[in-house]
Write a structure and sequence with these properties.
- The chain is mainly α.
- The protein has one domain.
- The protein contains 16 helices and no strands.
- α1 crosses α2, α6 runs parallel beside α16 and α7 runs antiparallel to α8.
- It is elongated.
């Protein structure tokens, strides 16, 4: 009996010790994860610098090339941590994808887009913000590009830490502008182009939000509020899939494959129309078969939008990798060109090894630091389901096409996040209108207290203010930081 009591007490003590050990391991894992992530990111930056030295072993500025490659890798990591969340956040928030599935799909398609279709020729530095002729010498140009690259990466890093999805394109533009002003004065800036970029701060999210809200209204009016929801879905879901396929075909032709095939807007729209009609016809029997046996309820409709939403997220990632990887490696490619040739005012291509740094950096950044922004975009701004998330993805593709037709420079980040806000604010308005109609139907409608009205807000205002403020200050903040870095580099190198 004494032995049994001793064994029982011993097992109890052992269980407690194992529990403490388990808690300690969990705590260590929690504390260690950021350290491990930072360590892997640092190793990648060092590896990028080593690759640059091996490829450009005969260059006259090895230290400059190593630092520029490391800064380019750092920027690519930050693009993966911040910008990619806009493509995957809605699908994760709608539970169409798990976090691990989203990261895997985004890593594959972002890298594929960057490597297959991301080699656009850079004819002007940061889209014509600074005239290269105003920069005095090759050394000054290299210092300016290094300052711009590091400043934009630091700003995106800070925005990620604050939980604000910002435009990496605008960060690079601000960095180049600030370094250009420090190097050559205010007259070197193309202020007309800067005015268009400033206008896009309003145009991009507003256009994305309106289009997303419009599609959500259409889905509610034509499918959700119909007596026979399944019959309505069989009719309209193939149409919506056709619109999505056509929009993405035109989007990819216009933005993602421009360096492989010379396609103007008219031809891109023709490709989109053909693909859209084919997709609509092909998905009619698929949706009919998939909808068999589904109950006549809203929950059943989510099943029909799941796979199209995943496909749209993958296509958005491919186009983003093709279109935005130059944000990370464009200044790096300019530095390499200037170091090798001594010229910086001619068009130049992005070398394959530079593209690989951008592609792998985006994938690593997404894997190591992306989940936080994915959660914010996908579930903390407003609640998303597959239908709402589908509207966000569809809006992103259509808005880019409309903006290209109008000649407006827009940000994919602003469009996607603006679409999420558009869906959320439409839900608020629509819910409020229906509740008001129900209350007015009562003989003595009660007045809702202020706290109850606040509780029914479907968009988190704190995120709205944080993100809007981050968008407004991105260009000036990156410009100021870049100017300070340029002056520091110039003082050290000079």
């Amino acid at each position: 009996m004494a032995n049994r009591d001793f064994e029982a007490k011993h097992l109890e003590t052992l269980d407690r010790d194992l529990g403490r050990l388990s808690n300690l391991e969990q705590a260590a894992a929690y504390v260690g994860r950021p350290v491990v992530g930072i360590g892997i990111a640092f190793f990648f930056m060092v590896a990028a610098g080593l690759v640059a030295t091996l490829v450009l072993s005969d260059t006259g500025n090895p230290i400059v090339i190593v630092l520029a490659a490391a800064f380019g890798a750092y920027m690519a990591l930050n693009i993966g941590a911040n910008d990619v969340a806009n493509n995957m956040g809605p699908a994760v928030g709608a539970n169409a994808l798990t976090m691990s599935g989203a990261i895997a799909i985004a890593a594959v398609f972002e890298s594929a887009g960057a490597l297959i279709a991301g080699g656009d020729v850079v004819s002007t530095i940061a889209k014509g913000i600074i005239a290269p002729a105003d920069i005095g010498s090759v050394d000054v140009f290299i210092w300016a590009m290094m300052a711009a690259l590091l400043a934009s990466a630091l700003w995106v890093n800070l925005a990620t830490w604050l939980g604000a999805p910002v435009s990496t394109t605008h960060s690079v533009v601000g960095g180049v502008m600030g370094a250009g002003i420090a190097a050559a004065g205010f007259a070197a800036v193309n202020w007309g182009q800067m005015g268009l970029i400033a206008a896009s701060w309003v145009v991009s999210p507003l256009m994305g939000g309106i289009i997303a809200a419009g599609f959500l209204w259409f889905i509610k009016a034509r499918i959700v509020y119909r007596d026979d929801k399944i019959a309505a879905a069989r009719r309209w879901v193939p149409v919506l899939i056709g619109i999505m396929a056509g929009a993405f075909a035109a989007y990819l032709a216009l933005k993602g494959l421009s360096h492989l095939v010379d396609i103007d807007l008219g031809r891109a729209l023709a490709v989109g129309l053909a693909v859209g009609i084919a997709s609509w016809l092909l998905t009619i029997p698929v949706i009919r078969r998939q909808s068999r046996g589904l109950e006549n309820r809203n929950k059943s409709l989510k099943v029909l939008f799941g796979i199209p939403l995943i496909v749209s997220a993958a296509l958005l990632s491919f186009a983003h990798g093709a279109n935005d990887v130059a944000n990370a490696v464009g200044p790096l490619a300019a530095i390499v060109q200037a170091s090798e040739t001594g010229s910086f005012d001619q068009a130049f291509g992005i070398p394959p090894w530079v593209m690989m740094i951008g592609a792998f950096g985006i994938a690593f950044g997404l894997f190591l630091f992306g989940p936080r922004l994915i959660r914010i975009v996908g579930s903390e701004i407003t609640k998303l389901n597959p239908m709402r998330a589908y509207c966000v993805a569809l809006s992103a593709a259509i808005t880019v096409i409309v903006a290209s037709w109008l000649g407006l420079p827009v940000s994919s980040t602003h469009i996607a996040v603006g679409a999420v806000f558009g869906v959320g604010f439409f839900r608020e308005w629509h819910t409020s209108r229906r509740l008001k109609e129900a209350r007015l139907a009562l003989p003595d409608p009660p007045r809702l207290p202020t706290e109850e009205r606040r509780r029914r807000k479907l968009v988190r205002r704190s995120h709205f203010m944080t993100i809007a403020a981050a968008w407004v200050v991105t260009v000036p903040a990156a410009a100021l930081l870049s100017a300070l870095l340029f002056l520091a580099i110039h003082a050290i190198a000079g």
